[in-house]
């Protein structure tokens, strides 16, 4: 029996071979066995409140009422935000919310839709 390397994203030991790729059954990550690890480490990894991986263009829903600093407005629970963009930093989601405008959100307060 052949042993495969652990998943580069979640470090799961349960990886398996699927033709020319290796696959992690826990997080769903797929990669080439000879691919450089440095290229994968540079990718921005952002997870929502439930632990799901987020990507540019995803839609998310707000999981908690969020007060907007310097305003009396509130982003309500269940507000759907379409076409997000991931950025570096503490507030790692850049988006436009209908009725409010452009703003940055923390990924820990959203869930993938």
Molecular structure report:
The strands form 5 sheets. A 3-stranded antiparallel beta sheet has the order 1-2-3, with no helix packed on it. Strands 9-6-13 form a 3-stranded antiparallel beta sheet, with no helix packed on it. Strands 10-11-12 form a 3-stranded antiparallel beta sheet, with no helix packed on it. The longest helix is centred in the middle third of the chain and has 5 residues. It folds into 2 domains: 38 residues, N-terminal domain of TfIIb (Single Sheet), CATH 2.20.25.10; 54 residues, SH3 Domains (SH3 type barrels, Roll), CATH 2.30.30. With 113 residues, it is mainly beta. Helices cover 4% and strands 32% of the residues.
Key attributes of the depicted protein:
113 residues, mainly beta, N-terminal domain of TfIIb, SH3 type barrels, 3-stranded antiparallel sheet, 1 helix, 13 strands, 32% strand, YjdM, YjdM_C, Alkylphosphonate utilization protein, YjdM_N
Write the topology of this structure:
Blueprint: E1 16-18, E2 21-23, E3 30-31, H1 37-41, E4 46-47, E5 53-54, E6 60-62, E7 66-67, E8 74-75, E9 80-81, E10 85-86, E11 93-97, E12 101-105, E13 110-112
Antiparallel strand pairs: 1-2, 2-3, 4-5, 6-9, 6-13, 7-8, 10-11, 11-12
Family: Belongs to the YjdM family.
Domain Protein YjdM C-terminal: 46-113
Domain Protein YjdM N-terminal: 3-32
Helical proportion? under 10%
Please indicate the count of domains: 2
Give the DSSP E fraction (strand runs of 2 or more residues). Answer: 25-35%
Tally of DSSP β-strands: 13
Cross-sheet strand order for the largest sheet: 1-2-3
Q: Based on helices, strands and strand pairing, what is the structural class?
A: mainly beta
């Amino acid at each position: 029996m052949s042993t495969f390397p652990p998943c580069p994203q979640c470090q799961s030991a349960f990886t398996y071979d699927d033709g020319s790729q290796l696959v992690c059954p826990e997080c769903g990550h797929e990669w080439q066995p000879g691919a450089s690890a440095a290229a994968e480490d540079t990718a921005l990894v952002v997870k929502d409140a439930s632990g799901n991986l987020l990507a540019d263009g995803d839609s998310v829903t707000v999981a908690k009422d969020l007060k907007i600093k310097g305003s009396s407005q509130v982003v309500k629970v269940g507000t759907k935000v379409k076409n997000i963009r991931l950025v570096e930093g503490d507030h790692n989601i850049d988006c436009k919310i209908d009725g409010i405008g452009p703003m940055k959100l923390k990924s820990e307060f959203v869930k993938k839709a």
